[in-house]
Amino acid sequence: MKAVYFLVAIAIVMIFFMVELFSPFLKAICVSVLLAVATNSVTLYLENRLKSRIIASSIMTIVLTALFFIPILYCIFSFANFFNQVDKEVLINNLSEMKIFVQKMISDLVFLNDFLNDLTSKIDIGKTVENILSISAFLGKNSAKFMIDMIMILIFFFFFTLYSNSIATFMKELLPIKKDDSTILFYESSNVMTVVLYSILITAVFEGFLFGFFLTFFGYDGLLFGVLYGFASLIPVVGGVIMWLPIVIYEATTNSLTNAVIIAVYSILVISVIADTFIKPMIIKYINQKVVKTPTSVNELLIFFSIVAGLSTFGFWGMIIGPAMVTFFISIMHLLKKYSDDFKEHVSYD
């Protein structure tokens, strides 16, 4: 047996045991690696300006904490506190009024009247309230685990960012392909991750600010609803509706129909049409052409569906894992085609 075959066999066995060993942290490691890859250009810029890799990595970790984890924790604690203070009887009365309001609205839809009435009649307000209040217990139960996951991601992110150059160099030398090909493979994945992450962050912050700031004029917690809308905007097509529709229904049934119409019109025209339809593509185009070193050639529609698939499969962090997997797969296919063409040319010459 050749030594290389023996080493490969040993490596495969050890990889299996390493995966078993670090299985509780695999998702945190994958997310932190992808975040480190996506933010590598900014880290290099800070390193060149500050002349210190440690300071640059520390700043990036703090920024990541401020952008992702502090808002998430704020939402968790705000909701937990809210549900603990909810008056069950008042909530049942409000939901009952909303149910009556909806039934009156659909009474004009004659062709769907029987179906919708049958659907609304099956809604048990009491059971619905119990399910809503159980969210508080769920948040309390899972918040500790979520905080631990966040801390692990931040720790891994710091060290992967700090030693990214050494790790990338080692991985390129380890791969059994040409150095130029491995560089192309890494750069293509890095560019797509940069475009996806930066566009998601900018549009989420921008749309969340538009929504949260506007709701402050109606007495709502602008920071909380802005953060929630920012995260909801990550869900394509229906993300924004998940946020503004319940508020519109609540305003229409308990406060003012005028307020409900204003919030609905603002959310649809300003955020969904202007911000999401026109401004968001401009942001992605600008990042793709000005921020990344080499503009990505991956179709934007493919990135869109990879985000949707990632969110449905891996949850919140699927918005990064999905595009990374698709991009890496496409890059591998391109390299496979290149090596296949080279092999065919070699065979034809022989």
Task: Indicate the topology.
Blueprint: H1 3-21, H2 26-38, H3 40-50, H4 53-84, H5 88-106, H6 110-121, H7 125-162, H8 164-174, H9 179-215, H10 222-232, H11 239-255, H12 257-291, H13 300-314, H14 318-349
Give structural notes.
The structure is a single chain. This protein is an all-alpha fold and 350 residues long. Helix content is 86%, strand content 0%. It is built from 14 helices and no strands. Helix 5 crosses helix 7. The protein starts with a helix and ends with a helix.
The stretches of 5 or more residues where confidence is low (pLDDT under 50) are: none
Count of discrete alpha- or pi-helical segments spanning 4 or more residues: 14
- What is the typical, i.e. mean, pLDDT? 75
Most strands sheet:
none
Question: Could you give a quick summary of the protein structure above?
Answer:
The chain has 350 residues and is mainly alpha-helical.
Question: What attributes does this structure have?
Answer:
mainly alpha, single chain, 86% helix, 14 helices, 350 residues
